[in-house]
Amino acid sequence: MQKLTLTNKNIVVIGMGLTGLSCVRFLLAKGANVIAMDSRNELTLKLDIPLILGELQVARLIQADLIVLSPGVDLYTPAIQKAVEAGVHVIGDIELFAQFNRAPVIAITGSNGKSTVTHLVVDMCKAAGKKVLMGGNIGVPALDLLEQEADLVVLELSSFQLETTYSLMPLAATVLNITEDHLDRHGDLSAYQRIKLSIYQSCQFKVYNRDDPLSYPDRLKVSLSYGLSPSNSGFSWDNENACILFDGKTFLDSKSCLLVGAHNMLNIQAAAALAKVFGIDDHSIRQGAQQFGGLPHRCQTVSMFNNVRWINDSKATNVGATLAAINGLVTNLEGKLILIAGGEGKGADFSVLKDCLTQFVGLVITLGKDGDKIAVLHSNNVKVQTIEEAVLVAAKHSQSGDIVLLSPACASLDMFVSYQQRGDCFAQAVQELTA
Fold it and tell me: Which residues form the catalytic set?
């Protein structure tokens, strides 16, 4: 796709969240004629451009020179597809960014671990004295980064963003893993996988997860690999000595890191590989890994009350994330693992949890819309109505050395405003145990 000409073009931006608003600002600055649309019937926004609320107006869409779609809006909405059939090009904010960006980009996607790896890469590069910008699916919309000078831009990208991106051309990219997620939007795992793998398109350095065949680039010519499996090349894991290896030699002792769990050792490897192909020295990579303490709601220890570790992993909104959390924690488990799970399942197949729950989890506490689908997978289960009740039940059944893990394997919107609110409610309930 050739570089876009935006001046005096008639452009419709659909979706007035943070990303949509960043698109409006950018397009107006480029001299475009912009109309905003949002499927919600009421918004408190005050814009200096036409704002159309409610049902998308096909007549307006098919008259546009370009449609810019926010990631939360389904590309296959009938009104948008009618515009596509009429020849209107549809892109997202990342494609707009790609058209005007001049800085090197490291692009990160995957079903789980994106935010942790993104932050790790940034910290490793900053430790080397680089000026690094971070955005995309995390924090700052990508378009808001364009006016800032940087040695590197690190982008976390969702499948929704990649679906409308064609010309990013990252310096380095990785697909961390692929497990069932957003199938209510993408239809099936194959379609979801295809969208994720598109991140490797026109990528200079392909960095991939050796242990996840679904995440392999289509053409397996890669620059560097990582994984928990043994390997004499790339990054790997020495389970006996609990350290990360590079080309078969000790690279980083996990005991020197604040992050815990096998999945986080994999996250560190992925970040280290991306930083390495960018040219960051090993000392800075190690320093960044050792100083990073993790993100809220992602396997975050919120209490050690009575020698019971309470972990908030509310960001685990799919089955793969919960499997990763459980498998990562059992290596350090002294007692039993109590799992709190459930919520809006987004059409996922929970049966793949069964073996893991049977082998590693002593008690499953379930709640939410699809909690019953998880409860039936374990013979020792308790069903509750609220997160506060779940914490009380977990406290009753736990003893010294146990871990209580909130890792829902589900979205939160059936009971909470966001996964953050769910995690905060869990942490507050745990704190009240000591009050």
Answer: 114, 137, 182
